[in-house]
Specification:
- By secondary structure, the chain is mainly β.
- The strands form 2 sheets. The protein has a 4-stranded antiparallel β-sheet, with no helix packed on it. It has a 4-stranded antiparallel β-sheet with strand order 5-6-7-8, with no helix packed on it.
- β5 and β6 form a beta hairpin.
- The longest helix is centred in the middle third of the chain and has 4 residues.
- 16% of the residues are buried.
Length: 130
C-alpha cells in the first residue's frame, strides 16, 4: 500500500487529501508475442485507489476509484490492458481538489493521464489530460 498526504491552504481554509494506492485481486491480462509469433498472456493485478479529501474537519469526498471510472475516457481495448498505477495531487483551485491519475500498460512505457477534480460539492469529475 502506498500512502500519500497533501495539506494546502486555499482562500484561508485548510484542505487535506489522502491517497491510498492498494493492490487488488482484479486481474489485467496483457497479451504479447514471442519471437516465434506465439501469443503469451501475462497476468498483472490492478490497483484500487482510495481518495479522501477534507475541508477543515468536514469530509468532502471519500471513495475508492478503480479503472472502471475511466471507461468513458479511454477506448476499452486499451483500458483493458492498463492498470491504475498512481494518483498525484496537483493543487487546489476554484473548482476543487485536483489530482492526476496515471494508467499504465504493465512492463511498457505506454501510459495515459487523466485529470480528476474533487469538487467542493462532493462530486468527482474525470477528463483526459491534455
Amino acid at each position: 500500500v502506498v500512502k500519500k498526504d497533501s495539506v494546502v491552504m486555499y482562500k484561508g481554509t485548510r484542505y487535506r487529501g489522502y491517497v491510498y494506492v492498494n493492490p487488488s485481486t482484479m486481474k489485467v491480462i496483457r497479451s504479447s508475442y514471442s519471437e516465434g509469433g506465439i501469443s503469451v498472456d501475462n497476468v498483472y493485478y490492478d490497483n484500487v485507489i482510495h481518495i479522501c479529501v477534507y475541508e477543515g474537519i468536514r469530509m468532502l469526498y471519500g471513495k475508492d476509484i478503480t479503472k472502471k471510472a475511466f471507461a468513458g475516457i479511454f477506448p476499452e481495448d486499451i483500458l483493458s490492458q492498463m492498470i491504475l498505477a498512481d494518483m498525484n495531487f496537483m493543487g487546489v483551485d476554484n473548482k476543487g481538489y485536483q489530482y492526476q491519475a496515471t494508467l499504465r500498460v504493465p512492463e511498457s512505457s505506454v501510459y495515459s493521464l487523466a485529470d480528476i477534480t474533487i469538487g467542493f460539492d462532493n462530486r468527482m469529475d474525470i477528463k483526459k489530460a491534455e
